[in-house]
Write a structure and sequence with these properties.
The complex is a heterodimer of chains A (145) and B (141). Chain A has helices at residues 3-20, 26-33, 42-61, 83-99, 103-108, 114-138. Chain A is 65% helix and 0% strand. Chain B has helices at residues 6-27, 33-38, 48-67, 81-97, 102-111, 115-139. The mean pLDDT of chain B is 96. Classes of the chains: A mainly alpha (145), B mainly alpha (141).
Chain lengths: 145, 141
């Protein structure tokens, strides 16, 4: 299978999964995060289902040398638990809690309700570019990680 | 008022897991959306095509699901525009600095039993819950 087609299919499946899970609705996500209000635990089932399936799938792929359409399996190799990781995750959590959108659902919503989320996605891209610039200034060697 | 939907949530999660497996078995990549998007700014040689194709699929998925008669929930954004923009900047900056989001750390990382991803996931979950608590029950309450 062609690399581009394979990536498109994987993205398509991901988009359908987010829609079925209703994660494309920020109000649903905020209801999940509202632990001390009228809590909707649904999204714990999304995470649970996704992690369980991926866990089994990744296990079975562990010994594989190459994927079907590319040269190498790019398993992450970074293991550092540092300020960058925790600080980045905290800033992400703040933004996620403010709006109810994380990167996947934000992008996935662009086809069904672009007028609602396009500003968020543009701001997200700017934020990513700023973080890259910030990272390159601080440690030029680590910029490609 | 939102309602509890455990079945569709579980099914959706299983489909998302299926996508993560597909991307690994076909392309050898982790299905982390922030990483896939961020890798386009700017992409190294040979990296742009598959990333754009994945994101194009991600946008097309909900549309096609609706066309075949599937339920497409509304996208209810309640934030004021300045908050929406601030949220986007924080999500973009934070996921780039912390190398991952709900999918990369929260799904793929936890599935690999990565301690690094567990720390990231617990951190963004805790901060997001605290943020909603403050905005809904302290300031908004």
């Amino acid at each position: 299978m062609n690399r581009i087609l394979a990536a498109f299919v994987a993205g398509l499946v991901f988009g359908v999964g987010l829609t079925v899970a209703q994660m494309t609705n920020p109000a649903k996500v905020l209801a999940f995060l509202d632990l001390f209000g009228n809590w909707d635990p649904s999204l714990a089932f999304v995470m649970g289902g996704a992690v369980a399936v991926t866990f089994v799938g990744y296990r079975s792929l562990r010994g594989r040398h190459a994927p079907v359409c590319d040269m190498s399996m790019r398993w992450p190799t970074t293991t550092a638990i540092d300020g960058r990781l925790v600080g980045g995750a905290a800033l992400f959590g703040l933004g996620w809690g403010l709006v109810g959108l994380c990167p996947g659902p934000a992008v996935a919503s662009l086809g069904i309700a672009p007028q609602r989320t396009i500003l968020f996605v543009i701001a997200m891209l700017v934020g990513m570019a700023l973080a890259r610039w910030f990272g390159e200034r601080r440690s030029p060697a680590a910029a490609s990680a | 008022m939102e309602t509890f939907t455990p079945i569709s949530a579980l099914v959706g999660g299983i489909i998302i897991g299926g996508s993560a497996i597909l991307l690994m078995v076909l392309l050898g990549r982790i299905a982390g959306i922030s990483g896939i998007v961020g890798g386009l700014l700017p992409p190294p040689a040979g990296e742009a095509g598959w990333r754009l194709a994945f994101l194009f699929g991600l946008v097309a998925g909900p549309v096609l699901w609706g066309l075949v008669g599937g339920f497409v929930p509304p996208v209810e954004v309640t934030s004021a525009i300045p908050v929406l923009i601030a949220g986007g900047l924080l999500v973009g900056f934070g996921t780039s600095l912390g190398s991952g989001c709900t999918s990369g750390h929260g799904v793929c990382g936890l599935a690999r039993l990565s301690p690094r991803s567990l720390v990231a996931t617990l951190t963004f979950m805790a901060v997001a819950v605290a943020t909603v608590f403050v905005t809904r029950h302290v300031i908004g309450g």
